[in-house]
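re: that chain from earlier
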Amino acid sequence: MNKQMQGTFVPPNHPELHIDYTIIKSNRKSWSLSVSSDGLLTMRIPNAMSRQYAESLIVQKQDWIVKQYIKVKKQQEKRPVSNLSQLQRDALEKRYREAARSYFPERVQYYAGILHVTYGNITIRDQKTRWGSCSSRGNLNFNWRLMLAPPRVLDYVVVHELCHRKHMDHSPAFWQEVGNLLPDYKTLRKWLKDNGNTLIL
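^ sequence. v structure.
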């Protein structure tokens, strides 16, 4: 079971900022940092790493964290103000989730046939920091909010995760595999990075 720890990071170089963070321990070999579209800092670390050491790494990476955090906050300011009521948003989300449960399996089946790979279960989620994921067993997770993105961007995420069935990393061989199917994947990847925070109801 993954162990989670929460806290608030005040960057020494930017004491005016208070950045909430979550440290997640799991069975992994390396650590990673990400800042979600709602400004939450997430650090994933191996089980053997102590919280004290993890927090020291956060301080070391404060310049990168602050840059990403400020970028997210600026993007939030550009988000359109929704006039929908909570009831309307809930109803729309339900419809998008239902559409996702139908649409994603179709695209996965299509691209899996081209790549000649197998896959396991397909789950639709509302992940805060990921658009998709692929487990070592081939189980796939996709964020329903991708239904709000251009179809080509959604296909990029599907192809990305299926290529992990051949390469469980982000090596040059992995990106070559992605590029073989989607030569414009860099453009699609950038669109998602720049506009992912706008995929809201």
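The radius of gyration is 18 Å.
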